[in-house]
Amino acid sequence: MKTKEEKREYSRKYYREHIEKAKERSRKYSREHPEKAKERSKKRQREHLNEVREYSRKYYREHIDESRKWHRKYRERYPYYFAEWSCQRSYGITLEEKNRMIENQEGKCLICGNEFKDSKDKHVDHCHKTNRVRGILCSHCNSGIGFFQDNVNILQKAIKYLEKK
Question: What's the rounded Cα separation, in Å, for the pair 125 and 131?
Fold first, then answer.
């Protein structure tokens, strides 16, 4: 009778010798049972999360130029997806909610009142302590508030300073 280690070694040897056959069987199963295959993949990822992350990081470092090129093309191909993902991930709002806010502001910045020039000029302003969304600002006003660290006292000092000059 074979020991557990001998059985494992036999399985590994067999797999190495028949790798293409095994891969084809796996691909066939995935095509025939997409839901089960997806669940199996997710389960493996959950169980081996750190290994998967480390592998992904290593692959990215080794293929950085290819990865950047692929991501650039993907972003160009699916701009809506990335805008939606960014809003949801960063601020907890959907792109639809952001657009509704812009519409309610009549397409203008809440601070300076200037109309937004393009999609890159519309920035979600939020409180960095509570992460609560306050409104949509142009890039200049959003940067200004950021540089003043959302601090009302510093902003009031800046106003006094400007009024002196």
Answer: 9
Count of CB atoms within 10 A of residue 158's CB? 14
Residues in the chain: 165
- Quick: pLDDT tens for 111-161: 999 999 887 789 999 988 888 999 999 999 999 998 998 899 999 999 999
* Contact predicate 125/136, CB 8 Å: yes
C-alpha dihedral over 19, 23, 26, 27, to 10 degrees?
Answer: -170
Note whether 139 and 121 are within 8 A (CB): yes
131 contacts: CB under 8 Å, gap ≥ 6: 91, 92
CA distances from 4 to 12, 16, 24, 29 (A): 12, 18, 27, 28
Question: What is the predicted pLDDT for the residue at 165?
Answer: 66
The secondary structure element, H or E, covering residue 15 is helix 4-17
CATH node for 78-164: 3.40.1800.10
Q: How far apart are CA 14 and CA 58, in angstroms?
A: 28
